[in-house]
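Below is how a single chain appears once it has passed through the pipeline. First comes the sequence as given, then the structure the pipeline wrote out for it. We keep one example in the README because the format questions we get most often are answered faster by looking than by reading.
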Amino acid sequence: MRGISFLAVAVFLSAIPPVDAGKKPKVIPSLEDAFRAWQKGLSSEQPKQREAAVRSMWMLTKKGVQILFPTRADRIWPHIEKMNEEFLRQVDDIAKEKTPYGAVVRVTAIDVRNKNFEQACPFIAANVPVVSYEVELEHGAWNGGPCVYVDGRWVWIIDLPDEVCAILRAK
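Resulting structure:
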């Protein structure tokens, strides 16, 4: 028999690692899509949808805190939990503040992970994407940050309580 034997092909193929067809590669959704969904939810007439919108981008989860601040999560979580409760009490105020400018037209994410950021914010886990953003709306614009991709979603890290900042600054 000429060429490559069946046995040689079988040995070669057995050395190739199996592919799990059920697993999709992790793709981070766009910040623009997250802002569009958030704005749509905040603009809803339904209180539950407005609350879901606030939860989606403003409220860190315990798992998110553990990913962001792995060495200090246990001390930080109780303060974040209180902050989240306050956000829930303010859902309608947040919606009124953020929705009068119309729909999201475009979002520009600006990667802020650089040497200066690493020195200023060494407490955020290195594997977490961190961006600032510019949001163009139908009748206005926002900019700000930081926004982090953690626990499967984009979340603002805004106005962290003073107690959290003190924990993060402590050596």
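The chain is about 45% helix and 20% strand.

See the next section for the split statistics.
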